[in-house]
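HOLO CASE FILE
Compound: calcium ion
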Amino acid sequence: AKSGGRNRLVAFVPEMTLAAQRRAQLEADLRRAIEQEALLPYYQPQFDCRTGAMVGVEALLRWPHPERGFVSPGEFIPVAEDTGLIVELGRWVLRRACADVAAWDRQGAPPLTVAVNVSARQLKEPDFLGDVLAALHTSGLAPGRLELELTESLLMDDVEGALTFMHAVRVAGVRLSIDDFGTGYSSLAYLQSFPINQLKVDRKFVQSLPVAGHTIATAVIALARGFGLAVIAEGVERPEQLEWLRAAGCDHAQGFLLGMPMPAAQLLALATRPATP
Ligand code: C2E
Ligand code: CA
Ligand code: CA
Ligand code: CA
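Model generated. Tokens follow.
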């Protein structure tokens, strides 16, 4: 197959299924997009439920594909994980996120935290901690402003390795949160030994509030309280969900109701906008 041109070919063997072809093409395109730094970090704001103040953002990758429009991370992150491209991509997001938040500071934004998603594959990299420290050092961002989002399955995949990593990260002053909490299989016993700062209630449970989902949401909030952890709800779309969460004592909230994921410039404008009474 030839390579390099816009219509770079992937060596399709005839017996490849259509799905396999699409995936091979996606992989080739992704490789190229990473080389050309064509992906973008978007930022979704996070708010304090009590005061309503913006307190942080979550970095979410976006890929504007030349022919297919925006490709969803749900589609390209698994490809990046399978191919190992996530290591380079993850390092890049980490650097961009730290640099962007440090730049917003200088432009008058309140001191926001920035949450960055971490894949299992990245955690297995021997020098992932070095990447984290380099991103902080280069940007000048205080470690306590960076939060790494880990999923339960990632933690349970290699508990010993994850624990070693988590302790090192906490010693460096970086914050840790467990994403999609309640959807994985981490046992409560492990939860007690994880040096984490925050639990993130999965969107699935938030979606059905206040009619259903409240049993699990209540339990997660109580669990966080008991362990002295903060708790954030993701996927808040309706005012009644936010009301319920506020009354239940949830600390932070994130979702389309409060703010969509947006480009850095737009987030900065939102964060520096004078408060409207
Ligand atoms: P996640 O970490 O659970 O991220 C939350 C997802 O929910 C995001 O989808 C976000 O856009 C979406 N979301 C936020 N508020 C709402 C809401 O109110 N309603 C609904 N229905 N959805 C909402 P997105 O951006 O498509 O990302 C999907 C997943 O891709 C993420 O799930 C995360 O697992 C992964 N991902 C995204 N960026 C990165 C990254 O930089 N690194 C890694 N390793 N994974 C990433
Ligand atoms: Ca996340
Ligand atoms: Ca999540
Ligand atoms: Ca998820």
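CASE NOTES: The CA atoms of residues 47 and 54 lie 4 Å apart. The chain is about 45% helix and 20% strand.
CLOSED: yes
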